[in-house]
Amino acid sequence: MIRVAFLINFSDRLLGGLNYFRNLLEAINNLPEKRIEPVIFTGNQSDLTLAKDFSSVEIIKTVFLSRKTPRWLFHKISQRILPRDILLERLLRKHNISVLSHAGSLGVHSEIKTIGWIPDFQHKYLHGLFSKIELHERDKMHEKLCRECSCMIVSSYDALNDLSKFYPNCAGKAHVLQFVAGPLSNLNLPSVEEMEEKYDFSGPYFHLPNQFWIHKNHKIVIEALKILKDRGKRTLVIVTGKTSDHRQSEHFDNLLSAVKKYGLADYFRVLGVVPYNDLISLMQNSVALINPSLFEGWSSSVEEAKSLGKRIMLSDIPVHKEQDPPGGRFFSPDRAESLAYLMQEVLEDRNLDEDNKLLSEAHEALRKRKMAFAERYQDIVLGLLDYSVTN
Fold first, then answer.
1. pLDDT tens digits for 312-358?
2. Per residue in 224-276, pLDDT tens?
3. Does residue 360 form part of some domain?
4. Residue 21 in contact with residue 8, Cβ under 8 Å?
């Protein structure tokens, strides 16, 4: 069995990343012809309550990944001044690791293969959301990944086009891995009545399950709700996700100020971070999901909609069109009128037969989609090690 390492920081600041790895590792472990074994390395300070959905994966705690400790600082310094990450490489060898995935480079001369991962190229398009230092650091990190990693993974063909545009010398060793996000097996989901009682809401609702980062574009949803309110249409949007954005610390407060100004407290309900079972229940029982994002690498909420058989209204950015979810309705991310029209139409023209058909087809397709996702990743690993897929 080929052991593949993932360096994961279990933190509620990184819920999107945790969701990505949760789905990838679950899919790998359910492969009928599994030939790779995921192993998680994490810091001693990690919040392992967030790791309960990774119970089938070996987790190794190490001081090297415990942020701001003396050994972590020493490791960071050695990474900068040495051509190889000797300390991490030694740790990985101790645990019989053949490949380090999604976690940077060990240096061009390392005998352990590395798979680099660039989720998106957001900073190349939305410059104003980043400081000059952040822009420089992201460029520097991407250049290092492209130069030193054995191969690269991107999550969409749209991102592959960007990789070819910004780092043309890297495109030849890049692979597209379109991840599949869906509910974990054997979930015991709360009922909609339990959700209504727990979170104090009632009636039909839309669900917006995005972090409150500025590029996620919650503002247009608030503007659409104002339009609907002015038309006399009572509409509820349940919003989940972490409420802070380190790049724009005032962003969440500005959104709440707009909600208050427009009198939308009963229309735009923020629940923040909720337990995973509650999150899936809220998605499943919504009228439809909403993703108004200005930029994505490959949207997990769109993938969740595909897996759950839920309708979704989503911004017409290229990667959302590439994802092309059944039951998807597209709108311009800078036109609140367009979103308001779709929300009103979905509420007034709900067709339960069509909803049930979407749900049935999604359930039938999900296992195959997850298996294809895991097989694609496994083939990337095997190819990197020059293993025949049928070896």
1. 999 999 999 999 999 899 999 999 999 999 999 999 888 788 888 98
2. 999 999 999 999 999 999 998 877 889 999 999 999 999 999 999 999 999 88
3. no
4. yes
In a domain, 187, yes or no: no
For residue 64, the enclosing domain spans 2-182+369-384
Order the strands of the 2-7 sheet from edge to edge: 58-62, 36-43, 2-7, 99-101, 113-117, 151-154, 174-176
Please list the alpha-helical segments (H only) found in the chain: 15-29, 70-81, 86-94, 122-125, 132-148, 157-166, 192-199, 218-230, 251-261, 276-284, 300-308, 318-323, 336-348, 352-384
Q: Which two tokens stand for residue 108?
A: 């061009």
- Copy the structure tokens of residue 245: 């954005």
**DSSP states of 322-380 as a string?**
HH--TTEEEE-TT-HHHHHHHHHHHHHT--HHHHHHHHHHHHHHHHHHHHHHHHHHHHH
Give the total number of structural domains in the chain.
Answer: 2
The SS3 call for residue 15 is helix
Q: Band of the pLDDT at 46, cuts 50, 70, 90?
A: confident
Measured in degrees and rounded to the nearest 5, phi and psi for residue 225 equal -65, -35
